[in-house]
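>> received
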Amino acid sequence: MELQASAALIIIDQQKGILHPRLGRRNNPHAEENMLELLALWRRTGRPVIHVQHLSRSADSVFWPEQSGVDFQPRFMPQDGEWLIQKAVPDAFCATRLEGRLREAGIGQVVIVGVATNNSVESTARTAGNLGFDAWVAEDACFTFDKADYFGTPRTAEEVHAMSLGNLHGEYATVVDCARILAAG
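>> returned
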């Protein structure tokens, strides 16, 4: 595994709303620490950092623009020179300029972290892979929540996370842990 000097770190939906208790039980309690380690590496090495912010169309969403949940958590506040992509659907490529900006900058590799694994992370990674980007998903820098499956069977956040990563690995993205990315950095 080779981490390119131009690899972009895409941090998805690290907004205040994702910490709301009404979202339920989550997995991977150290995900944010891992995201911050990767962010520190990217900033230290001058690689591109892309912050994705969800602006929900639904007033009952934790990411509704009319309340503080839409704001970035202070520890994930974009710095000067870092990109901001605002989206209204889970996929960070859909109806945004993300693909065009990556191509204009000559970026062919992306490392994706954030929330929720089975939602915005998975949909963004699928599109990245389908568009031909070398997409990596840092499995221990993502998390999700308990969720019932289609048939109503309750699934733990760990199960939802694992299935989502299984959907991605090998077909749309390479799923790795942060230690491997940091070692490649």
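>> The first helix runs from residue 31 to 45.
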